[in-house]
Amino acid sequence: MPLYKTINFNSSTQILVWKITESYEELYHEVQLNEKSLQRLHGMKSELHQRGFLSVRKLLQEAGYNDFDLQYDESGKPHLNPNNCHTEPVEVSISHSFRFSTIIISDQKAGIDIEMQREKILKIADKFVNNQELQRLKSFDNEDYIKKLTTKWGAKEAIFKIRNEKGISFKDHIQVNPFEITEGKTTAMLEIENTKQQFAIYFEEVEDFTLVYAFEI
Question: What mean pLDDT do residues 152-167 have?
């Protein structure tokens, strides 16, 4: 399928979303991969994961980059190198889940996550939301509860991708301020040791998925 959605957040930030309808073979023949990426791809046991990996490379191509521009540091955080079309390095964050993949490219520190809205999240809610917030969220009906939990998870995942530091606890160190699903935005705070950083959080529904992206404030 062609590019599903583009969000031009501002003049220097773009979010792209791909709906993965292609087969592994179709995607594989439409992208070029460097040697490390080929090794990673062939080492994946799940075709679903392989298709997500390849669809991210399709998104990079849509944004004027390719797999050869994408590098990972020692902690696994992705970076985009300057190329013929882009002379300055930019921030990039990547996510894929089932039939969707997404990237954010920005000159700001940014993180992104996309998650399917599933009842499964109810079973792990106490692992990433503190008890006080959990009790407040349980006052909502089941559908809204799932959507809010999915948004909170996505926000914390996006923040973690920005900071990419060992020892960060989603439950203990990242707090997302209350929000309504219709608002599409909120704020969050990361507090760990000597670090106290606020983040702007934006979110929206993409079919039965939740797309969340975050910026340092």
Answer: 94
User: Residue 217: how many CA atoms within 13 Å on its side-chain side?
Assistant: 12
Instruction: Give residues with Cβ within 8 angstroms of 178, minimum separation 6.
Output: 136, 186
**90 strand-pairing partners:** 80
pLDDT of residue 1: 62
DSSP per-residue codes, 73-110: -TTS-EEE---SS--S-BEEEEEEETTEEEEEEESS-E
Beta strands in the chain (DSSP E): 3-10, 13-19, 70-72, 78-80, 91-97, 100-106, 110-116, 174-176, 185-192, 195-206, 209-216
Task: List CB contacts of 69: < 8 A, sequence separation 6 or more.
Answer: 60, 80, 81, 83
Contacts of 52 (CB under 8 A, 6+ apart): 20, 96, 97, 101
pLDDT digits (tens, 9 = 90+) for 74-111: 888 999 987 766 666 689 999 999 999 999 999 999 99
pLDDT at position 138, please? 76
SS3 69: helix
